[in-house]
Amino acid sequence: VTEQPLDISIERLLRESRPQALAAVVRRFHDFAAAEDAVQEASLAAAIQWPHEGTPANPRAWLTQVAFRRMTDHIRSESARRRRESEVALEAAHTTGSSTIETTPLEDDTLVLLFMCCHPALTPASAIALTLRAVGGLTTAEIARAFLVPEATMAQRISRAKQCIKNSGIPFQPPAAEGQSQRLRAVLHVLYLIFNEGYTSSAGPDLRRDDLSHEAMRLTRIVYRLQPNDTEVAGLLALMLLTDARRLARTGAGGELVPLALQDRALWDRRQIEEGVALISATLPKGSVGPYQLQAAIAAVHDEAARAEDTDWPQILALYELLGRMSDNPMVRLNHAIAVAMVHGAAKGLELLDALKTDARLADHHRLDAVRAHLLELAGDRQGAVRHYRAAAAKTGSLPERNYLLSQAARLSIEL
Amino acid sequence: MSLAPIQNQMEEKDMKYILMLTGTKAEFDWYAKWSPQDYEAQAAFMHAFHEELKNSGALVAAEGLAFPDEARVVRAGVDGSPIVTKGIVRGVKDGAPFVTDGVFPESKEFLAGYTIIDVESAEQAYKIAARLSAAPGPGGIPGNMPVEVRQVMRGALEELP
Protein backbone atom coordinates (compact mmCIF):
# COMPACT_ATOMS: atom_id res chain seq x y z
CA VAL A 1 0.00 0.00 0.00
CA THR A 2 1.52 3.28 -1.02
CA GLU A 3 0.66 6.38 0.88
CA GLN A 4 0.25 9.61 -0.99
CA PRO A 5 1.75 12.52 0.89
CA LEU A 6 -1.16 14.43 2.34
CA ASP A 7 -1.62 18.14 2.28
CA ILE A 8 -0.10 19.34 5.58
CA SER A 9 -3.21 21.27 6.57
CA ILE A 10 -5.47 18.26 5.96
CA GLU A 11 -3.12 15.99 7.87
CA ARG A 12 -3.14 18.41 10.78
CA LEU A 13 -6.88 18.75 10.70
CA LEU A 14 -7.25 14.97 10.69
CA ARG A 15 -4.88 14.53 13.59
CA GLU A 16 -6.70 17.12 15.63
CA SER A 17 -10.17 15.83 14.85
CA ARG A 18 -9.47 12.15 15.18
CA PRO A 19 -9.31 11.76 18.97
CA GLN A 20 -12.58 13.62 19.43
CA ALA A 21 -14.30 11.62 16.70
CA LEU A 22 -12.99 8.44 18.30
CA ALA A 23 -14.26 9.51 21.69
CA ALA A 24 -17.72 10.17 20.22
CA VAL A 25 -17.80 6.71 18.64
CA VAL A 26 -16.58 4.97 21.79
CA ARG A 27 -19.20 6.78 23.84
CA ARG A 28 -21.93 5.64 21.49
CA PHE A 29 -20.91 2.04 20.92
CA HIS A 30 -18.86 1.13 23.99
CA ASP A 31 -16.45 -0.90 21.89
CA PHE A 32 -13.07 0.78 21.84
CA ALA A 33 -11.34 -1.71 19.55
CA ALA A 34 -13.99 -1.60 16.84
CA ALA A 35 -14.43 2.16 17.23
CA GLU A 36 -10.72 2.70 16.71
CA ASP A 37 -10.83 0.66 13.51
CA ALA A 38 -13.89 2.57 12.30
CA VAL A 39 -12.25 5.94 12.90
CA GLN A 40 -9.08 4.75 11.18
CA GLU A 41 -11.18 3.80 8.16
CA ALA A 42 -12.98 7.12 8.29
CA SER A 43 -9.61 8.90 8.36
CA LEU A 44 -8.49 7.00 5.30
CA ALA A 45 -11.71 7.98 3.54
CA ALA A 46 -11.08 11.59 4.54
CA ALA A 47 -7.53 11.44 3.23
CA ILE A 48 -8.88 10.34 -0.13
CA GLN A 49 -11.95 12.57 -0.36
CA TRP A 50 -10.99 15.84 1.26
CA PRO A 51 -8.24 16.84 -1.18
CA HIS A 52 -10.75 16.50 -4.08
CA GLU A 53 -14.03 17.49 -2.51
CA GLY A 54 -12.75 20.12 -0.13
CA THR A 55 -12.46 20.05 3.63
CA PRO A 56 -15.83 19.76 5.39
CA ALA A 57 -17.01 22.65 7.53
CA ASN A 58 -16.92 20.44 10.59
CA PRO A 59 -14.21 17.83 10.10
CA ARG A 60 -14.86 16.16 13.43
CA ALA A 61 -18.56 15.69 12.71
CA TRP A 62 -17.69 14.37 9.24
CA LEU A 63 -15.25 11.81 10.67
CA THR A 64 -17.67 10.84 13.41
CA GLN A 65 -20.51 10.34 10.99
CA VAL A 66 -18.48 8.19 8.61
CA ALA A 67 -17.15 6.18 11.54
CA PHE A 68 -20.71 5.72 12.88
CA ARG A 69 -21.71 4.29 9.53
CA ARG A 70 -18.74 1.92 9.54
CA MET A 71 -19.64 0.84 13.07
CA THR A 72 -23.21 0.14 12.05
CA ASP A 73 -22.00 -1.90 9.07
CA HIS A 74 -19.57 -3.69 11.32
CA ILE A 75 -22.29 -4.52 13.84
CA ARG A 76 -24.65 -5.71 11.10
CA SER A 77 -22.07 -8.11 9.70
CA GLU A 78 -21.15 -9.23 13.18
CA SER A 79 -24.79 -9.76 14.05
CA ALA A 80 -25.16 -12.24 11.23
CA ARG A 81 -22.81 -14.39 13.23
CA ARG A 82 -23.58 -13.39 16.74
CA ARG A 83 -27.10 -12.08 16.77
CA ARG A 84 -27.74 -12.12 20.46
CA GLU A 85 -24.65 -10.22 21.58
CA SER A 86 -25.10 -7.41 19.14
CA GLU A 87 -28.67 -6.52 19.94
CA VAL A 88 -27.64 -3.91 22.46
CA ALA A 89 -25.14 -2.37 20.12
CA LEU A 90 -27.58 -2.33 17.23
CA GLU A 91 -30.00 -0.50 19.42
CA ALA A 92 -27.36 2.11 20.00
CA ALA A 93 -26.73 2.30 16.27
CA HIS A 94 -30.41 2.82 15.54
CA THR A 95 -30.75 5.67 17.99
CA THR A 96 -27.99 7.43 16.10
CA GLY A 97 -29.48 9.83 13.63
CA SER A 98 -27.06 12.01 11.73
CA SER A 99 -28.53 15.03 13.47
CA THR A 100 -27.71 13.73 16.93
CA ILE A 101 -23.94 13.82 16.50
CA GLU A 102 -22.54 16.02 19.17
CA THR A 103 -20.71 18.99 17.74
CA THR A 104 -19.63 20.69 20.93
CA PRO A 105 -15.88 20.62 21.38
CA LEU A 106 -15.09 17.86 23.81
CA GLU A 107 -11.38 18.30 24.19
CA ASP A 108 -11.51 16.56 27.55
CA ASP A 109 -12.22 13.43 25.56
CA THR A 110 -8.63 13.48 24.36
CA LEU A 111 -7.54 13.14 27.95
CA VAL A 112 -9.98 10.31 28.60
CA LEU A 113 -8.59 8.55 25.53
CA LEU A 114 -5.08 9.05 26.85
CA PHE A 115 -6.07 7.58 30.20
CA MET A 116 -7.40 4.58 28.34
CA CYS A 117 -4.42 4.09 26.01
CA CYS A 118 -1.92 4.52 28.85
CA HIS A 119 -3.73 2.22 31.23
CA PRO A 120 -1.35 0.51 33.67
CA ALA A 121 -2.70 -2.87 32.50
CA LEU A 122 -0.81 -2.39 29.23
CA THR A 123 2.90 -2.93 28.73
CA PRO A 124 4.78 0.28 27.90
CA ALA A 125 5.36 -0.88 24.32
CA SER A 126 1.63 -1.51 23.85
CA ALA A 127 0.64 1.76 25.48
CA ILE A 128 3.06 3.69 23.27
CA ALA A 129 1.76 2.09 20.08
CA LEU A 130 -1.87 2.50 21.02
CA THR A 131 -1.43 6.12 22.08
CA LEU A 132 0.31 7.01 18.83
CA ARG A 133 -2.44 5.42 16.79
CA ALA A 134 -5.61 6.21 18.70
CA VAL A 135 -4.70 9.65 20.03
CA GLY A 136 -1.83 10.68 17.78
CA GLY A 137 -3.58 9.55 14.63
CA LEU A 138 -0.50 7.94 13.14
CA THR A 139 -1.06 5.00 10.84
CA THR A 140 0.16 1.58 11.85
CA ALA A 141 2.68 1.76 9.01
CA GLU A 142 4.07 5.03 10.33
CA ILE A 143 4.39 3.67 13.86
CA ALA A 144 6.03 0.50 12.56
CA ARG A 145 8.53 2.57 10.58
CA ALA A 146 9.35 4.70 13.58
CA PHE A 147 10.07 1.63 15.71
CA LEU A 148 11.79 -0.28 12.90
CA VAL A 149 9.53 -3.29 13.06
CA PRO A 150 7.40 -4.80 10.28
CA GLU A 151 3.91 -3.37 9.92
CA ALA A 152 2.38 -6.80 10.65
CA THR A 153 4.21 -6.93 13.97
CA MET A 154 3.07 -3.45 14.95
CA ALA A 155 -0.49 -4.26 13.86
CA GLN A 156 -0.43 -7.26 16.19
CA ARG A 157 0.91 -5.18 19.03
CA ILE A 158 -1.87 -2.63 18.59
CA SER A 159 -4.57 -5.22 18.25
CA ARG A 160 -3.36 -7.01 21.37
CA ALA A 161 -3.39 -3.73 23.25
CA LYS A 162 -6.97 -3.13 22.17
CA GLN A 163 -7.89 -6.67 23.15
CA CYS A 164 -6.35 -6.11 26.55
CA ILE A 165 -8.47 -3.00 27.04
CA LYS A 166 -11.54 -4.87 25.92
CA ASN A 167 -10.87 -7.84 28.19
CA SER A 168 -10.16 -5.76 31.24
CA GLY A 169 -13.45 -3.89 30.75
CA ILE A 170 -11.85 -0.48 31.23
CA PRO A 171 -14.74 1.95 30.84
CA PHE A 172 -14.53 5.03 28.65
CA GLN A 173 -14.65 7.59 31.38
CA PRO A 174 -12.20 9.62 33.40
CA PRO A 175 -10.63 7.67 36.28
CA ALA A 176 -12.14 8.18 39.72
CA ALA A 177 -10.92 11.29 41.48
CA GLU A 178 -8.74 9.45 43.99
CA GLY A 179 -6.87 7.51 41.30
CA GLN A 180 -6.72 10.32 38.79
CA SER A 181 -3.34 11.74 39.72
CA GLN A 182 -1.73 8.32 39.58
CA ARG A 183 -3.28 7.62 36.21
CA LEU A 184 -2.11 10.98 34.95
CA ARG A 185 1.44 9.94 35.97
CA ALA A 186 1.05 6.85 33.79
CA VAL A 187 0.00 9.06 30.85
CA LEU A 188 2.99 11.35 31.38
CA HIS A 189 5.30 8.36 31.56
CA VAL A 190 4.11 7.07 28.19
CA LEU A 191 4.46 10.53 26.63
CA TYR A 192 7.95 10.72 28.09
CA LEU A 193 8.84 7.34 26.57
CA ILE A 194 7.52 8.42 23.18
CA PHE A 195 9.58 11.58 23.40
CA ASN A 196 12.66 9.58 24.33
CA GLU A 197 12.16 7.19 21.44
CA GLY A 198 12.16 10.13 19.10
CA TYR A 199 15.10 11.72 20.80
CA THR A 200 17.55 9.29 19.28
CA SER A 201 19.88 9.84 16.44
CA SER A 202 18.49 7.82 13.62
CA ALA A 203 20.41 5.27 11.63
CA GLY A 204 18.74 6.06 8.31
CA PRO A 205 17.68 9.11 6.36
CA ASP A 206 13.93 8.58 6.44
CA LEU A 207 13.21 7.04 9.79
CA ARG A 208 11.46 10.25 10.81
CA ARG A 209 12.09 9.61 14.45
CA ASP A 210 12.03 13.33 15.17
CA ASP A 211 8.34 13.05 14.47
CA LEU A 212 7.90 10.94 17.57
CA SER A 213 9.37 13.68 19.74
CA HIS A 214 7.19 16.28 18.12
CA GLU A 215 4.14 14.09 18.49
CA ALA A 216 4.95 13.58 22.19
CA MET A 217 5.32 17.33 22.58
CA ARG A 218 2.05 18.00 20.77
CA LEU A 219 0.17 15.55 22.99
CA THR A 220 1.84 16.87 26.13
CA ARG A 221 0.76 20.38 25.12
CA ILE A 222 -2.82 19.17 24.88
CA VAL A 223 -2.60 17.58 28.33
CA TYR A 224 -1.07 20.81 29.65
CA ARG A 225 -3.93 22.83 28.18
CA LEU A 226 -6.41 20.51 29.87
CA GLN A 227 -4.55 20.26 33.19
CA PRO A 228 -2.76 23.60 33.48
CA ASN A 229 -2.55 23.36 37.24
CA ASP A 230 -0.75 20.04 37.39
CA THR A 231 2.86 21.06 37.97
CA GLU A 232 4.32 17.78 36.67
CA VAL A 233 2.50 18.15 33.35
CA ALA A 234 4.07 21.58 33.00
CA GLY A 235 7.38 20.10 34.13
CA LEU A 236 7.29 17.40 31.48
CA LEU A 237 6.41 19.87 28.74
CA ALA A 238 9.25 22.14 29.84
CA LEU A 239 11.66 19.19 29.95
CA MET A 240 10.72 18.23 26.40
CA LEU A 241 11.07 21.78 25.12
CA LEU A 242 14.44 22.28 26.78
CA THR A 243 15.82 18.93 25.67
CA ASP A 244 14.51 19.05 22.13
CA ALA A 245 15.91 22.58 21.76
CA ARG A 246 19.40 21.04 21.51
CA ARG A 247 18.43 18.50 18.88
CA LEU A 248 20.26 20.03 15.90
CA ALA A 249 23.48 20.38 17.89
CA ARG A 250 23.49 16.80 19.20
CA THR A 251 24.81 15.18 16.06
CA GLY A 252 27.58 16.15 13.71
CA ALA A 253 27.63 16.12 9.93
CA GLY A 254 28.41 12.41 9.84
CA GLY A 255 25.66 11.51 12.31
CA GLU A 256 28.16 11.21 15.17
CA LEU A 257 27.14 12.22 18.67
CA VAL A 258 28.32 15.56 19.98
CA PRO A 259 28.46 15.76 23.78
CA LEU A 260 26.82 18.75 25.42
CA ALA A 261 30.09 20.45 26.26
CA LEU A 262 31.18 20.49 22.62
CA GLN A 263 27.86 21.39 21.04
CA ASP A 264 27.56 24.48 18.89
CA ARG A 265 25.18 26.43 21.08
CA ALA A 266 24.28 28.71 18.18
CA LEU A 267 22.33 25.73 16.84
CA TRP A 268 20.15 25.55 19.94
CA ASP A 269 16.57 26.60 19.43
CA ARG A 270 16.40 29.86 21.40
CA ARG A 271 12.65 30.25 21.14
CA GLN A 272 12.05 26.80 22.52
CA ILE A 273 14.54 27.40 25.33
CA GLU A 274 12.81 30.66 26.23
CA GLU A 275 9.44 28.96 26.31
CA GLY A 276 10.77 26.08 28.40
CA VAL A 277 12.59 28.34 30.84
CA ALA A 278 9.53 30.56 31.24
CA LEU A 279 7.32 27.54 31.81
CA ILE A 280 9.53 25.89 34.42
CA SER A 281 10.22 29.22 36.13
CA ALA A 282 6.49 29.82 36.47
CA THR A 283 5.84 26.26 37.64
CA LEU A 284 8.49 25.65 40.30
CA PRO A 285 7.20 28.33 42.73
CA LYS A 286 3.77 26.67 42.75
CA GLY A 287 5.14 24.27 45.33
CA SER A 288 4.38 20.70 44.34
CA VAL A 289 7.79 19.84 42.90
CA GLY A 290 8.23 16.50 41.12
CA PRO A 291 10.87 14.65 39.09
CA TYR A 292 9.88 16.09 35.70
CA GLN A 293 10.11 19.63 37.03
CA LEU A 294 13.52 18.96 38.53
CA GLN A 295 14.81 17.43 35.32
CA ALA A 296 13.43 20.41 33.41
CA ALA A 297 15.16 22.75 35.84
CA ILE A 298 18.45 20.93 35.28
CA ALA A 299 17.99 21.13 31.51
CA ALA A 300 17.22 24.85 31.90
CA VAL A 301 20.45 25.47 33.81
CA HIS A 302 22.41 23.81 31.00
CA ASP A 303 20.50 25.64 28.29
CA GLU A 304 21.02 29.01 29.95
CA ALA A 305 24.82 28.73 29.97
CA ALA A 306 26.26 30.72 27.08
CA ARG A 307 29.33 28.47 27.06
CA ALA A 308 29.84 25.02 28.58
CA GLU A 309 32.30 26.44 31.12
CA ASP A 310 29.65 28.92 32.30
CA THR A 311 27.39 26.08 33.49
CA ASP A 312 26.15 26.62 37.02
CA TRP A 313 27.19 23.22 38.37
CA PRO A 314 26.46 23.97 42.06
CA GLN A 315 22.87 24.68 41.01
CA ILE A 316 22.72 21.41 39.04
CA LEU A 317 24.19 19.54 42.00
CA ALA A 318 21.52 20.94 44.30
CA LEU A 319 18.81 19.88 41.86
CA TYR A 320 20.20 16.34 41.59
CA GLU A 321 20.27 16.11 45.36
CA LEU A 322 16.57 16.98 45.46
CA LEU A 323 15.88 14.52 42.66
CA GLY A 324 17.80 11.80 44.49
CA ARG A 325 15.57 12.24 47.51
CA MET A 326 12.52 11.68 45.33
CA SER A 327 13.52 8.58 43.43
CA ASP A 328 15.80 5.64 43.88
CA ASN A 329 16.72 5.66 40.22
CA PRO A 330 20.37 4.62 39.79
CA MET A 331 20.72 6.94 36.79
CA VAL A 332 19.95 9.85 39.07
CA ARG A 333 22.68 8.72 41.45
CA LEU A 334 25.08 8.42 38.52
CA ASN A 335 24.27 11.93 37.36
CA HIS A 336 24.59 13.15 40.91
CA ALA A 337 28.13 11.74 41.00
CA ILE A 338 28.93 13.68 37.83
CA ALA A 339 27.64 16.90 39.34
CA VAL A 340 29.66 16.26 42.51
CA ALA A 341 32.77 15.79 40.37
CA MET A 342 32.14 19.06 38.56
CA VAL A 343 31.69 20.97 41.81
CA HIS A 344 34.03 19.23 44.27
CA GLY A 345 36.52 17.56 41.97
CA ALA A 346 36.79 14.25 40.12
CA ALA A 347 38.06 12.34 43.16
CA LYS A 348 34.85 13.02 45.08
CA GLY A 349 32.78 11.90 42.10
CA LEU A 350 34.81 8.69 41.74
CA GLU A 351 34.22 7.90 45.42
CA LEU A 352 30.49 8.01 44.79
CA LEU A 353 30.86 5.74 41.76
CA ASP A 354 32.56 3.12 43.93
CA ALA A 355 29.47 3.03 46.09
CA LEU A 356 27.30 2.58 42.98
CA LYS A 357 29.16 -0.54 41.88
CA THR A 358 27.13 -2.57 44.37
CA ASP A 359 23.85 -1.50 42.75
CA ALA A 360 22.82 -4.55 40.72
CA ARG A 361 20.90 -2.35 38.31
CA LEU A 362 24.07 -0.49 37.40
CA ALA A 363 26.89 -2.96 37.97
CA ASP A 364 26.88 -4.21 34.39
CA HIS A 365 25.56 -1.04 32.77
CA HIS A 366 27.74 0.66 30.18
CA ARG A 367 27.00 4.08 31.58
CA LEU A 368 28.77 3.35 34.85
CA ASP A 369 31.92 2.65 32.86
CA ALA A 370 31.36 5.67 30.62
CA VAL A 371 31.04 8.03 33.56
CA ARG A 372 33.99 6.45 35.35
CA ALA A 373 36.07 6.87 32.20
CA HIS A 374 35.11 10.50 32.01
CA LEU A 375 35.89 11.21 35.65
CA LEU A 376 39.21 9.32 35.42
CA GLU A 377 40.09 11.51 32.46
CA LEU A 378 39.23 14.59 34.49
CA ALA A 379 41.40 13.24 37.30
CA GLY A 380 44.30 12.82 34.87
CA ASP A 381 44.30 9.00 34.82
CA ARG A 382 44.38 8.52 31.07
CA GLN A 383 45.12 4.83 31.07
CA GLY A 384 42.24 4.13 33.39
CA ALA A 385 40.00 6.31 31.28
CA VAL A 386 40.90 4.43 28.09
CA ARG A 387 40.18 1.11 29.80
CA HIS A 388 36.74 2.20 30.95
CA TYR A 389 35.80 3.94 27.69
CA ARG A 390 36.52 0.63 25.96
CA ALA A 391 34.62 -1.37 28.58
CA ALA A 392 31.63 0.95 28.12
CA ALA A 393 31.88 0.61 24.33
CA ALA A 394 31.73 -3.18 24.62
CA LYS A 395 28.56 -2.99 26.71
CA THR A 396 26.47 -0.36 24.98
CA GLY A 397 23.69 -1.33 22.61
CA SER A 398 23.79 1.96 20.76
CA LEU A 399 25.91 2.26 17.65
CA PRO A 400 26.53 6.04 17.71
CA GLU A 401 27.30 5.77 21.39
CA ARG A 402 29.81 2.97 20.79
CA ASN A 403 31.50 5.03 18.10
CA TYR A 404 31.66 7.96 20.48
CA LEU A 405 33.13 5.89 23.33
CA LEU A 406 35.69 4.22 21.07
CA SER A 407 36.76 7.57 19.67
CA GLN A 408 37.20 8.91 23.21
CA ALA A 409 39.43 5.93 23.99
CA ALA A 410 41.32 6.46 20.73
CA ARG A 411 41.83 10.17 21.40
CA LEU A 412 43.36 9.42 24.81
CA SER A 413 45.50 6.54 23.51
CA ILE A 414 47.09 8.83 20.95
CA GLU A 415 47.87 11.35 23.66
CA LEU A 416 49.32 8.69 25.99
CA MET B 1 34.64 19.72 29.94
CA SER B 2 31.18 19.45 31.34
CA LEU B 3 28.68 16.65 31.37
CA ALA B 4 25.20 16.45 30.04
CA PRO B 5 22.03 15.83 31.95
CA ILE B 6 21.06 12.26 31.31
CA GLN B 7 17.46 11.23 31.16
CA ASN B 8 16.95 9.14 34.23
CA GLN B 9 15.36 6.37 32.33
CA MET B 10 17.04 3.03 32.07
CA GLU B 11 14.43 0.41 31.49
CA GLU B 12 11.34 -0.20 29.41
CA LYS B 13 13.22 0.43 26.25
CA ASP B 14 12.38 -1.71 23.30
CA MET B 15 15.42 -3.69 22.39
CA LYS B 16 16.07 -5.86 19.40
CA TYR B 17 17.95 -9.11 19.65
CA ILE B 18 19.12 -11.51 17.00
CA LEU B 19 18.88 -15.23 17.81
CA MET B 20 21.31 -17.20 15.72
CA LEU B 21 21.42 -20.91 15.08
CA THR B 22 24.83 -22.00 13.94
CA GLY B 23 26.54 -25.26 13.17
CA THR B 24 29.84 -26.71 12.00
CA LYS B 25 30.10 -28.50 8.67
CA ALA B 26 29.89 -31.82 10.56
CA GLU B 27 26.64 -30.74 12.21
CA PHE B 28 25.15 -29.70 8.87
CA ASP B 29 26.12 -33.14 7.46
CA TRP B 30 24.45 -34.81 10.43
CA TYR B 31 21.33 -32.69 9.95
CA ALA B 32 21.20 -33.72 6.28
CA LYS B 33 20.64 -37.32 7.40
CA TRP B 34 17.52 -36.79 9.51
CA SER B 35 14.35 -38.75 8.70
CA PRO B 36 11.46 -37.09 6.82
CA GLN B 37 9.35 -37.21 9.99
CA ASP B 38 12.07 -35.40 11.90
CA TYR B 39 12.27 -32.63 9.28
CA GLU B 40 8.50 -32.29 9.30
CA ALA B 41 8.36 -32.07 13.08
CA GLN B 42 11.06 -29.43 13.09
CA ALA B 43 9.48 -27.44 10.28
CA ALA B 44 6.12 -27.51 12.06
CA PHE B 45 7.77 -26.32 15.26
CA MET B 46 9.56 -23.47 13.50
CA HIS B 47 6.38 -22.41 11.73
CA ALA B 48 4.33 -22.38 14.95
CA PHE B 49 7.13 -20.69 16.88
CA HIS B 50 7.44 -17.81 14.42
CA GLU B 51 3.70 -17.53 13.98
CA GLU B 52 3.38 -17.08 17.72
CA LEU B 53 6.18 -14.49 17.76
CA LYS B 54 4.39 -12.57 15.02
CA ASN B 55 1.08 -12.66 16.87
CA SER B 56 2.69 -11.48 20.08
CA GLY B 57 4.07 -8.45 18.25
CA ALA B 58 7.70 -9.38 18.82
CA LEU B 59 8.85 -10.69 15.42
CA VAL B 60 11.03 -8.39 13.35
CA ALA B 61 12.50 -10.83 10.85
CA ALA B 62 13.40 -14.48 10.47
CA GLU B 63 15.21 -16.32 7.72
CA GLY B 64 16.82 -19.67 7.14
CA LEU B 65 20.04 -19.85 5.13
CA ALA B 66 21.16 -22.22 2.41
CA PHE B 67 23.62 -24.94 3.41
CA PRO B 68 27.20 -23.71 3.74
CA ASP B 69 28.51 -26.04 1.02
CA GLU B 70 28.12 -23.30 -1.52
CA ALA B 71 29.32 -20.53 0.80
CA ARG B 72 31.76 -18.18 -0.86
CA VAL B 73 33.91 -15.49 0.60
CA VAL B 74 34.10 -12.26 -1.32
CA ARG B 75 36.72 -9.58 -0.96
CA ALA B 76 37.22 -6.46 -3.00
CA GLY B 77 40.23 -6.48 -5.27
CA VAL B 78 42.39 -3.40 -5.72
CA ASP B 79 40.08 -2.15 -8.47
CA GLY B 80 37.01 -2.93 -6.33
CA SER B 81 36.00 -5.99 -8.33
CA PRO B 82 34.97 -9.08 -6.35
CA ILE B 83 37.54 -11.78 -5.59
CA VAL B 84 35.50 -14.90 -4.86
CA THR B 85 37.05 -17.73 -2.90
CA LYS B 86 35.90 -20.80 -1.08
CA GLY B 87 37.24 -20.87 2.41
CA ILE B 88 39.59 -18.42 3.98
CA VAL B 89 42.19 -18.23 6.69
CA ARG B 90 42.47 -14.99 8.56
CA GLY B 91 44.17 -13.51 11.53
CA VAL B 92 46.09 -10.52 12.84
CA LYS B 93 49.82 -10.40 12.22
CA ASP B 94 52.23 -7.56 12.89
CA GLY B 95 49.34 -5.39 14.00
CA ALA B 96 47.29 -5.73 10.81
CA PRO B 97 44.61 -8.21 9.75
CA PHE B 98 45.57 -10.57 6.93
CA VAL B 99 43.61 -13.01 4.79
CA THR B 100 44.71 -15.97 2.72
CA ASP B 101 42.69 -18.40 0.65
CA GLY B 102 42.37 -21.88 1.99
CA VAL B 103 39.63 -24.09 3.27
CA PHE B 104 37.14 -23.35 5.99
CA PRO B 105 38.49 -24.75 9.24
CA GLU B 106 36.56 -27.72 10.66
CA SER B 107 35.66 -25.70 13.71
CA LYS B 108 34.04 -22.87 11.75
CA GLU B 109 30.47 -22.18 12.79
CA PHE B 110 28.14 -21.37 9.92
CA LEU B 111 24.94 -19.44 10.36
CA ALA B 112 21.98 -21.71 9.67
CA GLY B 113 19.20 -19.25 10.36
CA TYR B 114 18.29 -16.24 12.40
CA THR B 115 15.33 -14.62 14.11
CA ILE B 116 15.26 -10.96 15.09
CA ILE B 117 12.88 -10.02 17.88
CA ASP B 118 11.81 -6.77 19.47
CA VAL B 119 11.35 -7.19 23.22
CA GLU B 120 11.57 -5.15 26.39
CA SER B 121 14.43 -6.89 28.14
CA ALA B 122 17.31 -9.29 27.68
CA GLU B 123 15.50 -11.76 29.96
CA GLN B 124 12.57 -11.88 27.53
CA ALA B 125 14.99 -12.53 24.68
CA TYR B 126 16.62 -15.37 26.63
CA LYS B 127 13.24 -16.98 27.30
CA ILE B 128 12.37 -16.89 23.61
CA ALA B 129 15.83 -18.21 22.71
CA ALA B 130 15.37 -21.11 25.12
CA ARG B 131 12.16 -22.07 23.37
CA LEU B 132 13.92 -21.98 20.01
CA SER B 133 16.71 -24.08 21.47
CA ALA B 134 14.16 -26.73 22.42
CA ALA B 135 13.12 -27.25 18.78
CA PRO B 136 12.72 -30.98 18.20
CA GLY B 137 15.68 -32.98 16.95
CA PRO B 138 15.68 -36.59 15.76
CA GLY B 139 12.91 -38.64 17.34
CA GLY B 140 11.06 -35.49 18.40
CA ILE B 141 13.39 -35.05 21.35
CA PRO B 142 14.17 -31.39 22.11
CA GLY B 143 17.49 -30.58 20.48
CA ASN B 144 18.56 -28.07 23.12
CA MET B 145 20.93 -26.64 20.57
CA PRO B 146 22.89 -23.52 21.41
CA VAL B 147 21.32 -20.26 20.29
CA GLU B 148 23.61 -17.27 20.12
CA VAL B 149 21.84 -14.15 21.37
CA ARG B 150 23.21 -10.74 20.44
CA GLN B 151 21.74 -7.31 20.86
CA VAL B 152 21.05 -5.41 17.65
CA MET B 153 22.54 -1.94 17.89
CA ARG B 154 20.17 0.99 18.01
CA GLY B 155 20.49 4.75 17.83
CA ALA B 156 21.75 6.56 20.89
CA LEU B 157 19.09 6.93 23.51
CA GLU B 158 20.53 9.58 25.69
CA GLU B 159 22.73 12.59 25.61
CA LEU B 160 26.28 11.63 26.41
CA PRO B 161 28.66 12.90 29.01
Could you give the order of the helices and strands of chain B?
Answer: EHHEEEEEEHE
Termini gap of chain A? 56 Å
What is Rg of chain A? 25 Å
* Mean pLDDT across residues of chain A: 86
Largest sheet: spatial strand order of chain B: 2-7-1-8
DSSP helix fraction of chain B? 10-25%
The largest chain-to-chain contact, stated as pair and per-chain residue counts, equals: A-B, 67 and 34 residues
**Beta-strand share of residues of chain B:** 25-35%
Number of strands of chain A: 0
Main sheet record of chain A:
none
Chain oligomer state: heterodimer
The radius of gyration of chain B is 20 Å
Approximately how much beta-strand content do the residues of chain A carry? under 5%
Outline of the structure:
Chain A is 72% helix and 0% strand. Chain A is an all-alpha fold and 416 residues long. Chain A is elongated, with a radius of gyration of 25 Å.
